[in-house]
Design brief:
The complex is a heterodimer of chains A (78) and B (137). Chain A has 78 residues and is of the alpha+beta class. The longest helix of chain A is centred in the middle third of the chain and has 12 residues. Chain A is globular and about 30 Å long. Chain B has 137 residues and is of the alpha/beta class. Chain B has a single domain, classed as 3-Layer(aba) Sandwich (Hypothetical Protein Ychn, Chain: A), CATH 3.40.1260. Chain B has six helices and five strands; from the N terminus they run βαβαααβαβαβ. A five-stranded parallel beta sheet of chain B has the order 4-3-2-1-5. In chain B, helix 5 links the parallel strand 3 and strand 4. In chain B, helix 1 packs parallel to helix 4. The longest helix of chain B is centred in the first third of the chain and has 16 residues. Chain B is globular and about 40 Å long. The chains are: A alpha+beta (78), B alpha/beta (137).
Chain lengths: 78, 137
């Protein structure tokens, strides 16, 4: 996945639960089906939150990684 | 997932209002309908003339905890009212005032924040909650 494929980025670093997922839900509304959204977060609960959100809303979590305390999620708008 | 989450918001202090708002936001982004019934001090928090306690912290807090909570607030942590406003934009979140509390506290619908959608009785709230979860905060 190259950076060029990301349609929008959300920097939710430093925000507490559930604000990263709230910002994500707001951002994905503006995308078209199939477009990718990247989210960066530092909230420790975000890994399970993003998995649950993707499953519940049907917007697939196509990428997930962690580096230096920063979690990166890539979601595809359904 | 579309099971409703029903929250009875009885408390009117900042920490408890915040806790309730986090559950509302979490359920709203998961696509679950959220219904909040405002009772007594939770109801006063939505009334501009009587919500001074909504900036205070409950007796549950330790001295250290209260100071850390205040620090987070001063550091720009989103407050409960803003979290609820955003939740309403993101999902189906209905906020009702308990009819009996309105009577006891001598409040009229015009006294309440526009976020409050209406006045509801306990039976109506429980009937709408069905077999879904009910939180009492």
């Amino acid at each position: 996945m190259t950076d060029l494929e990301i349609a929008q980025r959300v920097d939710a670093k430093g925000l507490s639960c559930p604000m990263p997922i709230v910002k994500t839900a707001q951002a994905i509304k503006g995308l078209s089906s199939g477009q990718l959204l990247e989210v960066l977060a530092t909230d420790a609960g975000s890994v399970k939150d993003f998995e649950a959100w993707a499953k519940s809303t049907g917007n697939p979590l196509v990428g997930s990684s962690a580096e230096g305390g920063v979690y990166r999620f890539v979601l595809q708008k359904k | 997932m579309d099971e409703p989450l029903s929250i009875v918001l009885f408390s009117g202090t900042d920490d408890r209002l915040t806790a309730a708002s986090l559950f509302a936001a979490g359920a709203a982004v998961l696509g679950r309908p959220v219904r909040i019934l405002l009772q007594y001090w939770g109801l006063e928090a939505f009334c501009a003339d009587r919500n001074a306690r909504a900036a205070e912290i409950s007796g549950d807090a330790s001295e250290t905890g209260a100071a850390l909570f205040a620090d987070a607030r001063a550091g720009g942590q989103v407050n409960w009212a803003e979290t609820l406003r955003q939740s309403k934009e993101l999902g189906e979140v209905e906020i009702s005032a308990c009819a009996q509390s309105m009577d006891v506290l001598k409040l009229q619908p015009a006294d309440l924040d526009p976020m409050v959608d209406g006045v509801e009785g306990i039976a109506g709230f429980l009937a709408a909650a069905g077999n879904g979860q009910i939180l009492f905060v």
